Amino acid sequence: DHKLRLIGTQSSIPGLYTPPMYYYLMTPFLFIFNLNPVGIDYATAFFGLLTVILLYYLLTKFTNDRLLALSLTSLYGFQPSVVYQSRYAWNPNTVPFFVMLAMVSLLKILKGTKGFRYYGLLFFCLGLIINLHYSGVVFFVSILFLLLFFFKRLNKKYFFGGIAIFCLELFPLILFDLRHNFVNTKGIINYFLYNPRNDLPAPPFFVGVFDKYKFLLNLVFPINFNSTSGLIFLSVFTLFFISWLFKSKNEKFKVLGFLFLSSIALASLYKRGFFAFYLTFLYPLPFLIIGSLFSRTKQKRVKRLFMYIFIFLCFVWSLKNFQTSFVQVENNRIGLGEKLRKNSLFVAEKVAFPFNIASISSDPERFGFNAVDYRYFLETFYKKQALDWDPIDYQKAPSLYFISEVGEVSFSQMADIWEVKVFQPSKIAEKWQKDDIILYKLVK
Length: 444
Known about the structure:
This protein is mostly helical.
């Protein structure tokens, strides 16, 4: 339509969109590759490589040991989750690069480096991180708290200039809201209206802090932390980490430890369905922490032994996990795609315009908000386009087709799902079953 894009992708909160900077970030790569979509895959891989370079740079600053920095950077570069997220285009997959760039800028600012460039770069990165995925809000809040803590040593003019850059990156979304009847604001309001208090953890309790902490450390240590030996190792490491965090006089390490722990705690305030990619912005931080701890080892022989063990683990662990992390995952994705396409044909034969859809997936790890997977197949292959996925689109739909991959679902159980809540059905009008799915037609 030859109009500038003011919003990005829809978030997991219905009706709430991200800002649009990801699209503009990828545009140069699309032109370089003559509008071939594979260009943004290359862009993602490019940012992944730059992340590795920045991680090595930061590790040399934290450890003052190039060999240790190289060892940990190699481990990060061969980590299956990191490699996998660098292989295809998706807005969260470029977040680690800008987190590393923000870390470089933050350390330069706290060191007292003169000039506006690092303030501008820091807030530009923070704004872009939020543009890429709203999980970046957690990182922004942690950074902002640190800046306020060290506010006396900051250049106030540069600080507020950086805030202006940050706000400028969010301005398209604000403008979109003003032009479209505050759709994002309403999305946030609806989220709290249709997700009552029991959807938010009661302070001071945080949901899944320990699980997120284990997951992130697993990026470095190939250990089963649920086993007895794994729990012992984790407990010893955590005690050492926390004690050193309090005893250390190294300001960089304290800043790093605070960012890591506070980000995990803040991320755990989100009680809704949590996916591993929500923590993508934290992936490099455990490697910086491990490097900082190892660099404190006074015995050179012990330190070098750890380095060689890490280099060895880097290749052994990566080779061991290659089959499950890549080949099997890709095969499973192909099989899932064929299954969804076949099931979508069954749904397409039953739906009648106008309609909307919702689903409950048999795999809790599959991103299934708004039945996005079924929407794709219904629209692309069978020309059956559902209404949009904003709350108002569910409210105005005359019928809602609910796809269950988990067997029979009662009317009361459906009512707990937000799409059904917003639709407010009065009854189940019809029900069909084929193979492993059940399709319900809900009406008002």
